[in-house]
Design a protein that fits this description.
Length: 563
């Protein structure tokens, strides 16, 4: 194992830490993020909602609020349509709940993966029109749905689009179009996902109606949508998600999330980070949409009592277990296919495809391939007349741009730089594979992360220089994820105090690092270390120890070897 550790300045970190009242380890992590001013550091560690960007500069926010307020006052029927991922579902839930709290007649609708697919499709249009609304709000879609929006207009139905995907060249035939990526939009922060935009619009409608309604109670849904959509966790999103995580961690959380925490075996009062949402809550919220009907998730998020929430959550948990079984089978086949086609260390992006794979789990499998091979990956469930696939990429790689270069081999594609979907004819698979390999190689240049045994770390933990941080300090870095990566720690040497294998082949260690005892856990790493080994070096992420609690931390191993 070769470890490359980022350069550090222990003396400067110690001085910076004293000025902030934090350890030199946390101070160095802030310096790695380019934060070296004490005031800027305090703003980063303790972000406030009062520091959010001025929403009045968002183009069409006021016209959208005025149209919705008029509909509320007149008792018009409003249809709120959301895409079937967590961002679309939480955005629809936020707007539905806020508008109902303001007295509106609202009918929420969620896209169906197997009935029309993502976005405001023809199938979705007919479902919405069947509700006989006079106003439609699309959440997390609409930017590329010009024909269906024009159809609404022709039927005399107004539309408001709330979206954050790429902006079309042609103006949309709508009453208002909220998207911070519009060239004429003066809103300072461009990273809001649809859940964040929905909250902002809800607050604008409240102001237009001069109603007393605290919209902060919907921040839990904003946090869920933002984290699940892999949106950047900086700027406004950092403030919104941090506040949302506090709400999710508290006993004031809505019934639907409370029962999800119970299913995930999260202890009451446990402070949650973005990783807990991404890996313990989001998969459950996504499971209905992957296998059937995302309306289950919407109903769960809108539930106002524990009893119906538990009934809905039980159905969702059954679907989640089925999703796990399907995903494990598809992932095993996809990994074997990648190794057969590209070898064990691919030098370009990879494409895995087969008939019989469930299209609802291909996104998860693509993420597993990225973890395994460290290159962009697309996984396609081949069907007739068209296969449906999903792509993922390592942090910082422009996946959407790569797919754009392959557009002539695809029926259609959409999404973000980190996660995208594709539709292609099966006979075009070989052409897409070749185009994707060329595009990812060209775009990555020297940055493509090839497989190998070199591991990068942010800090080497040495009690005489950078000591093991405590859980309360690590929590100050939350939310961690896109645009605020979780730091990776290198332990140059540690004494093994205990070694055991737990679960289905997982490694559990107790390590002595200087004067501190730290638990370590390696997923699927039971064979990485013999029981008789006394000293090791290791690389991984430090997280609060959910079992011991308090300020204890656990090292989530990425690599470990004897020394």
């Amino acid at each position: 194992m070769r470890v490359k550790v980022r350069s550090s300045d222990p003396a400067k970190a110690q001085e910076f830490g004293r000025a902030l009242g934090v350890s030199s380890t946390l101070a160095q992590l802030l310096m790695h993020r380019g934060i070296e001013d004490p005031d800027a550091a305090r703003g980063f560690l303790l972000p406030k909602l009062s520091g959010l960007s001025d929403p009045s500069t968002m183009v069409d926010r006021q016209p959208a609020a005025e149209r919705l307020a008029r509909a509320v006052r007149a008792g018009e029927r409003i249809a709120v349509f959301g895409d079937y991922d967590v961002d679309g579902t939480t955005a629809a839930a936020i707007l539905t709940d806020i508008l109902r709290a303001l007295g509106a007649d609202v009918s929420p609708v969620i896209a169906e993966r197997f009935g029309g697919g993502y976005g405001f499709s023809e199938h979705a249009l007919e479902r919405v029109v069947g509700l006989r609304p006079t106003l439609v709000v699309t959440c997390d879609c609409g930017s590329s749905d010009h024909p269906r929006l024009a159809d609404l207009q022709a039927r005399g139905i107004d539309a408001v689009v709330v979206d954050h995907h790429l902006v079309p060249d042609e103006p949309l035939p709508v009453a208002a179009f909220l998207n911070p990526h519009r060239p004429e939009c003066g809103f300072a922060y461009k990273g809001l996902c649809s859940a964040g935009l929905a909250l902002s619009l809800g607050a604008a409608v409240r102001a237009e109606l001069q109603a007393k309604l605290d919209v902060r109670r919907w921040l839990d849904l904003v946090a869920l949508g933002t984290i699940a959509d892999v949106a950047p966790l900086d700027g406004d999103n950092r403030s919104l998600v941090r506040a949302g995580l506090r709400l999710i961690s508290s006993d004031r959380v809505r019934p639907g999330i409370a029962v999800l925490k119970e299913l995930a075996k999260i202890r009451p009062g446990t402070p949650l980070g973005a990783g807990d949402v991404a890996f313990r809550l989001s998969p459950r919220l996504n499971a209905p949409g992957r296998l059937g009907d995302q309306r289950l998730t919407l109903e769960l998020l809108l539930a106002d009592r524990m009893e119906p929430a538990r009934m809905l959550a039980a159905q969702i948990e059954q679907l989640n277990q089925k999703r796990k079984t399907l995903e494990q089978a598809v992932t095993a086949e996809a990994q074997a296919q990648v190794e057969a086609v590209y070898g064990s260390e691919p030098a370009s992006g990879v494409v895995a495809a087969a008939e019989g794979w469930h299209r609802g789990v291909v996104g998860i499998t693509a993420a597993r391939l990225v973890e395994r091979f460290r290159v962009p990956a697309v996984v396609v469930a081949l069907e007739r007349p068209a296969g449906h696939g999903s792509g993922r990429a390592p942090d910082g790689f422009p996946l959407y741009d790569a797919l754009a270069r392959c557009s002539d081999t695809l029926e259609r594609f959409g999404g973000h730089q980190a996660a995208s979907g594709v539709v292609l004819a099966p006979e075009r698979l070989d052409a897409f594979r070749a185009a994707f390999a060329d595009a990812t190689t060209t775009l990555a240049g020297e940055v493509v992360q090839r497989g190998g045994d070199e591991v990068e770390a942010d800090i080497a933990l040495d009690p005489n220089v950078f000591d093991v941080p405590v859980a309360s300090e690590l929590s100050l870095l939350e939310p961690q994820g896109q645009a605020n990566a979780e730091p990776r720690f290198f332990v140059p040497q540690a004494a093994v105090k205990a070694h055991r294998v737990v679960g289905e082949g997982h490694l559990k260690l107790s390590l002595r690092v200087g004067s501190r005892t730290v638990s370590a856990f390696g997923y699927g790493m039971a064979d990485a270390l013999e029981a008789r080994v006394k000293r090791v070096q290791a690389v991984g992420m430090l997280r609060p120890d959910a079992w011991l609690g308090g300020d204890h931390v656990e090292l989530r191993l990425e690599a470990v070897q004897p020394i």
